[in-house]
Amino acid sequence: MGDVMDRAQERGQEWLHDQLAHQAVRAARQRSAVQVLDCEDCGEPIPAARRQALPGVRRCVGCQAAMEREQQR
Fold first, then answer.
1. What is this structure's pTM?
2. DSSP character for 7?
């Protein structure tokens, strides 16, 4: 029974390690993302609060909503 429990513990540790590694990669990508100041669709400034809340954001709220509506069609 010990071997089964040891292996389950080992797999749990591997899973946790993988999850933490993926989280670190995502965080690094967000930090290194080029900050876009103006919407790529309409050219209007993207508010600082939106850029801070969504690192790497490329569209203003209106253009993002329009794009998402178009994708749902």
1. 0.53
2. H
3-state secondary structure 18-63: HHHHHHHHHHHHHHHCCCCCECCCCCCECCHHHHHHCCCCCCCHHH
DSSP 1: -
CA distance 51 to 46: 7
Structure tokens belonging to residue 28:
């690094």
The amino acid at residue 73 is R
Which amino acid is it at 52?
A: Q
- Asked if residues 41 and 67 have their Cβ atoms less than 8 Å apart, the reply is yes
Interatomic CA distance for residues 18 and 8, integer angstroms: 15
For 15-68, what is each residue's pLDDT tens digit? Answer: 989 898 888 888 777 665 667 899 999 999 999 999 999 988 999 999 999 999
